[in-house]
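Complex record, two chains
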Amino acid sequence: MKSIGTSLARAALRKLKIDLAKISQPRLFSSMASKDREDAFSNPDVQQMLLNLHHSMVKTLIDSETKELPVCNFKQPEELLKALDLEIEKEPASNDTILDACKSVMDYSIKTASPRFMNQLYSGINPSCLAGSWVTEVLNTNLHTYEVAPVFVMMEKYMMRKLSKLVGYDNGDGVLCPGGSFANMLGMHLARVQIDPDIKSKGMGNNKKMVLFASSEAHYSIAKGASFLGFGESNVVRVETDKIGMMKPDVLDQKIQECIQQGSIPAFVMATTGSTVLGSCDDLNAVADVCEKHGVWMHVDAAWGGGVILSEKYKHLMNGVHRSNSVAWNIHKMSTGLVQCSIFLTKSSGMMEECNRFNAEYLFQPDKHYDVSYDIGDKTVQCGRKVDILKLWTLWKSRGDNGMAKQTDNAFENAKYLVDQIKKREGFRLVLPEFQCPNICFWYIPSRLRNKEENADWWKEVSKIAPQIKRKIMEDGSMMIGYNPLTTKGYVNFFRVIITNPMTTPQDMDFILDEMDRIGHAL
Amino acid sequence: MKSIGTSLARAALRKLKIDLAKISQPRLFSSMASKDREDAFSNPDVQQMLLNLHHSMVKTLIDSETKELPVCNFKQPEELLKALDLEIEKEPASNDTILDACKSVMDYSIKTASPRFMNQLYSGINPSCLAGSWVTEVLNTNLHTYEVAPVFVMMEKYMMRKLSKLVGYDNGDGVLCPGGSFANMLGMHLARVQIDPDIKSKGMGNNKKMVLFASSEAHYSIAKGASFLGFGESNVVRVETDKIGMMKPDVLDQKIQECIQQGSIPAFVMATTGSTVLGSCDDLNAVADVCEKHGVWMHVDAAWGGGVILSEKYKHLMNGVHRSNSVAWNIHKMSTGLVQCSIFLTKSSGMMEECNRFNAEYLFQPDKHYDVSYDIGDKTVQCGRKVDILKLWTLWKSRGDNGMAKQTDNAFENAKYLVDQIKKREGFRLVLPEFQCPNICFWYIPSRLRNKEENADWWKEVSKIAPQIKRKIMEDGSMMIGYNPLTTKGYVNFFRVIITNPMTTPQDMDFILDEMDRIGHAL
C-alpha cells in the first residue's frame, strides 16, 4: 500500500462529506527519556512505523470486508517461503523492514474478515472486538491475580456471571480457555474429580475404568482429551446418531448400562450443540434425562452452536442446557469474537477451584492488601493465562444483547437462503434434508454425472469434484469453502459452507453457487 | 487523553525537528459497500475510533515506558467495579463509548511496559513484537492447517527449527503453547507415550504406577499437570535442592532407584533453568547423567531462564540441555515477547504427531492440493490454536540474534548492579549469597529490627514488613514488586525483584531501594 499525502486524504474526505473539523489529526508523541533507543515507543521512527502499520491494517480490513481483496493469495509452501524471506540476521532489522514484513504477511495471509471466507467456524471481524484485542496486547498481562490484572478479573467475573445465567446456571461460574478442545477437557477433568476427589492426588490407576460418551458426530477433542487426561481413547464410546446427526438418547442409555454391567464407571457425557460438520444439535433434555438417571456428568459442547442461545428464535436448540453440569462455548465462532474466545462454564461454582487449587505461594499470598478471592488463577490448570475477556466485553458491549441476537439470526437467515437456492438449482444436492445450524453441506454434481445411476463408482467420481473446485477457488482467491468426507455417515467429499460473517449477504450465497457451477459443471 | 488539533500536532513535530514531508498523514478510507453499517471498517466513524484508540494506546505505552504514568492506579475490587461501569445493555453502544471504555481500561490496568513493573516474570514491550501481535489479531486465524494460516505455518516451522538448533537438537521440532505450564504438560504426555505407546488408547489404568520428578524449587505446573494428565499429584517426587536451589543429582538418582525398587516406573524428570522464585538453574549435565543411567525422559523447564542460551556470557547455565528430550521456554519472560509466547521443543521430531495424531477428516483431508505435511494441527492436543508466532518472529527479526543476546545481558547486568547495591545498604539482606538469574530476592529490615537477636519472633516481625511496603507502593503506584515466603527453604516473606524490561536502568534499581527504605525504615 502506497502512502498518500494530506491533500489526497482531504479530497477523499470531502467526497465522503465528512466534517474535517470533527476529525482529530494524528500526532507523534515526544519524550526525551528513551527516544534515542531504536526500540522505544518514544522514538518517532517507531511511532511512524506503528501509525503506518495502523493504516495498512485498517486498509486490509476494509478491503477484506468489502471483497476488494481476494480471500487468499495462494502459493504452494516452497513458493511462499521464497516470497516471504523469513531469514533472521545477527544484526537488528529496521522499523521499515518490520513494517514491510508485516505488510507482506498480510498480503499472503488469508483474509478471514472477508464475507467470502466460509472455510472455518470463524469469519468476520468486529471493530470493537478488535479494539479490545489490540488494547489487550498493549496491557500485556496474565489473568491469574487481581494484582496484575484488576480490570480483567472484574470483567471476567462479570461476563462469566452473565453467561452462566444465559445457560440457566443460577450459581454458575466460568473461565476463558485456550480453545474449545481445552474447555471440553476441563469438563472431563471436573467430572472425574466429582466422582472421586482423590483422583487429583492419586491419578487414574486406582479406580475402576472410567468411560466417556459422545455422539459419533461429536468433536474429536473428546478423543484427544481422553488421551491427554489419561482416560485413554479406547474408553470413549461413540453413540449412534439419527438422520440429521442427533445423538440417539436410547442408545446412550443402553451404552451407559452396558458400561455399568462391565464394571466400569460412566464418567462423562458430552452432548453437542452444533456438530462441527453437520451442525447437529442433540436433544439436551433427552440427554439430561439419561444422565440424571445414571448420575453422570453432562457436558455440552456448544463450541460452534452456543450462539443460538442469544436468539429468541433459535434458543430452543439448547433447551435443557440448564440441566447440564458444564458447557463449552466459543464466542469466536457463531458470534464472531476474535480467535480465541473460548468459554468454559460450570453449574457448580467452586468446583473449578476444588479441582485445580494449588495455592502457589509466590502468586497467591494470603496476606495481600485486597480480598484474595479475586485471585482467580487456581480456577484452571494454566498458570499464566492470556487475557481474552476484554475483546469479548467490547464485542458484546458494542452490539448490546439485541445485537448479539441479531448476529445469530443473520447467520441463520443467510443459511436458510442458501438452502433454498440449493434446492432450486440443478447440480447441487444437500447432504441433509434440513440443517439445524448455519453450516450447510452439499455435493456439487457436474453435468456429466447428472441423471446417472448412483452406484459406488458414481460416488467415487463425485468425491473427486470438491477437491478440484476447492483448488480452483483458492487459486482464484475468490472464496474459501471447506470440503470433507464424513465416514460416520458414509458420505464422500462434500462442501461445507459456514456462515457467521455479519457482512455476508444473500448475494454472497448466490455468488458461491454461481462460481461452483461455473468452475464445476464441465469437470 | 484529550484530542489535539493539527496545528498543535505540527508544533509538537517542529519541536522534535521532524521533517513533516517525511511523515505520512492519516487517512480515512472510503468504501460504499458497507459503510452504512455501524460495525463496518468502511464506516468512517469506526475508522476514527480506531485511529483515536491507536494514539491513545501509543501514548499509554510511551508514558509507561518513560515512567510518566504510575505503574498502577490501585483500587480495591468494589471501588474498581464502580469506576468501570461494566454493565452491558440491550442496545448497542456507540463507537465513542467503546473508545472511552478502552481508555478507562488502560487507566485502571497495570502498566506492565513500565521499567518499574518488576512483579512478574514479564515486563516491557517491544514495538516490533507489538506490531506482530496487532497484525495477528487483524488476520484472525488458527494455526492448524496451511490452508488457513500459510504464512504462520511457514514461520512457525522456521522458528522451531532455529530454536531447536539453539538448544542443540539437530533434528528437533516444536510448537507454541498456551503457556509454560501447558508446555511442561506436553513434555509429560510425550514421556508417557514413549514408555508405552498404548497409553494413548488405553489410558493410565493399565500400567505400573508412573512417577514424575522435579526439584523442590520447580514450578507448580508439575503438580497441576500430574493431576490433569491423570498421573496424580502424589506421584510427583520433589527432589531436595542445595543452598542456591539447585537440584541435588545424587538425591535424584536415589529417589529414582527407590521408585524402581517399589515397582513403579520413573517416567519424567523435570529439570529447571531459572526457578520461579530463586532463579536457580539445575546442573543439566548432572541431571542428564542420572536420566540416561535410568532411561528416563528429561524435560527442562526453562520457562523463565531459557533466554540465557541466547547470550555467550550466560549460556553455560544451560550446558547439557542438548542431552534433554524436551524443553519449555517462554519467550515472553526473559526475552520480553508479549504474553503468551511459550515454546515447547522436543528432540524427537515426529514424536508430537505420534502422540497427538487424530487425523480429523474435516480438517486434515489427504486429497488437498498442497503437501499436507504442512497441516500441523496434530502436533498438539488443541484443535484451534492461537497464532503466537508472528510476534515472536517480528521481535527476533527486529533485534537480530545479537539484540536478543543483548536483552539477556542487560537484564543480568541490572540484576548484578542491584545485588551490589543491596550488599552495600543497611537494612537490606539478600536471601541467597548469589543469584543465577535476574530475579533478586531480599528482605527489608526496618530500623527497629536491626541488630536484634534473630529468633522466631524476630522473623515473624520481618515477615510482616514486605506486605506493608507492597501495599504502600501499590497505593502510590510508584512500582510493583512481588513478595512471598518460601516454605521449602523455611524463609518468611521477602521481596523478589524481577528484571527483564529493556528500559530498566541502574537508576531504577537505586529507586527501588530508596523507596523501600523511605517507606519501610520506620515500620
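Note: Chain A has 16 helices and twelve strands.
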